[in-house]
Amino acid sequence: CFCQLSGKIDDCTCNIDTVDHFNNVKIFPRLRSLVVKDYFRFYKVNLKRPCPFWVDDSRCAMRFCHVESCEEDEIPVGIKGATILQRSSNGGGKEKYLRKANEDCAAHHTELDYLNKTISETDQKNMELWAAHDDALDNFCDIDENDEEAEYVDLLLNPERYTGYVARYAGPSAKRIWESIYLENCFRPKKSFNFNPYIQSGKLNELCLEERVFYRAISGLHASINIHLCANYLLSDSNGMDLVDPSGRWGPNLEEFVRRFSPETTNDEGPNWLRNLYFVYLLELRALAKAAPYLEKEEYYTGNDSEDWETQMAMKDFLNVVKQFPEPFDETTMFRNSEQAEKLKYEFKQHFRNITRIMDCVGCDKCRLWGKLQTQGLGTALKILFSGKFDDIQVGSSIDVNNKKNFQLQRSEIVSLMNAIARLSTSIYKIDDFRHMLR
Ligand code: FAD
């Protein structure tokens, strides 16, 4: 069976079998119960930003592309943020959140005052100092949590599944997005450049490690998105469209899975794309292990004390399991041993930021939502691994989370990272389902 994968995962130290077992038995069940917690289910996102690269001509016509954003009273009070809370007259349990927000603000202002002063004495050195303090420079994503047009979306009410965002219903949009990602934003083998946007896996050894990592991460994410749409396919529609099963329900579509991943229909590439899913999963898992000391101390504040306590305990338990997995991916081998390392790191970041911008060109709102969330999650993992800010926090070290200067993650980064790893984990679990069905 083509999806009965085995052996070592390329550019990693572990085997597929080990990951399958570890994920399906330990990680997947924990993530499944974690992402339904209030802290993780509400994601703030702007789905209205125009496409910055081309005229946005193809909105998905399918009703399954629609995303319902939350009414204000549906969002837990602690999540809404300081602005809304300040507007509200009754304090109560919200004081804690306000105090925290004010402290963060005060610390930020002191820092800005200092930087303003040094910048006014301008010279090149001070400019560099300013740049070093600018958090945005560490980000691999072009997503602004304070965007005024951003709205909260309940992820549980808008699940990732088949939407009909395919050429038949939405024109060439989806194809154009993937083409632009691979052709213009992935690193490509120089000697064998051609106009086929999709790199053959055999050519990957012409790329350096960092470039391969970039490609595998994107391809793994692409595989995961497509596995989800196969696993939650519209088996029938009341309008009689796409009738695979006349009883009307969502569920796995084995034929679609085989079409998308079997060697026969993908020029032998499908199994490699599945292997790339395991790769990006290990990359995000490593980021979680690295940021574990920080994430263990996060409050996961929603304003509901018992829910928050449960989330903190569940996160601790989950992170303990993550830490048991021995060094799934060694990021320290990247961006070294080369005079070009800094330049390469800069390009790596710019390419990835561009991909997060391309998400504003996705013509189906549901796909855009999950595309944005998963690229932000991957971007957060890259930030943890490569910004250098998390290098000093060793597992078990006692760190002061209130001192956010060194390792600050915004709420939306934590939410996207956890949901992104949950999506990848679910995909690996679903491959196992398809394996059973094929048998
Ligand atoms: P596509 O998946 O569009 O792929 C185009 C080409 O890329 C293929 O022909 C193949 O040569 C190559 N390719 C395919 N997989 C890989 C891989 N893993 N690695 C490298 N190369 C590959 N549809 C939904 O129904 N629900 C969703 O939630 C959803 N979310 C999306 C999110 C984003 C950001 C995008 C861009 C698209 C999303 N789509 C979603 C659409 C879906 O991914 C497909 O694009 C669509 O179903 C059309 O599929 P296709 O068979 O034309 O091949």
Task: Explain what this protein looks like in three dimensions.
GO terms for molecular function: FAD binding; protein-disulfide reductase activity; thiol oxidase activity. The protein is mainly alpha-helical and 439 residues long. It is 53% helix and 3% strand. It has 15 helices and four strands. The chain has helices spanning 16-34, 38-41, 77-80, 82-87, 95-120, 124-133, 167-170, 173-185, 209-231, 254-261, 270-295, 305-324, 341-358, 365-386, 411-438, and strands at residues 42-45, 151-154, 233-234, 250-251. The strands form two sheets. A two-stranded antiparallel ribbon has the order 1-2. Strands 3-4 form a two-stranded antiparallel sheet. The N and C termini lie close together (8 Å). Residues 160, 162-163, 165-166, 174-175, 177-178, 198, 219, 222-223, 225-226, 229, 273, 362, 366-367, 370-371 line the site of flavin-adenine dinucleotide.
Helices and strands, in N-to-C order? HHEHHHHEHHHEEHHHHHH
How do the strands of the widest beta sheet line up side by side? 1-2
Number of strands: 4
Which molecules are bound besides the chains?
A: flavin-adenine dinucleotide
Number of helices: 15
* Structure class: mainly alpha
* Beta-strand fraction estimate: under 5%
Helix fraction?
40-55%
For the largest beta-sheet, the strand count, sense and barrel status come to: 2 strands, antiparallel
Question: Could you tell me how far the N terminus lies from the C terminus, measured between alpha carbons in angstroms?
Answer: 8 Å
Mean pLDDT: 83
Low-confidence stretches: 82-99
Give the overall silhouette: globular
Radius of gyration over all CA atoms, rounded:
22 Å
Cofactor: FAD
Membrane topology: Peripheral membrane protein
Subcellular location: Endoplasmic reticulum membrane
GO molecular function: FAD binding; protein-disulfide reductase activity; thiol oxidase activity
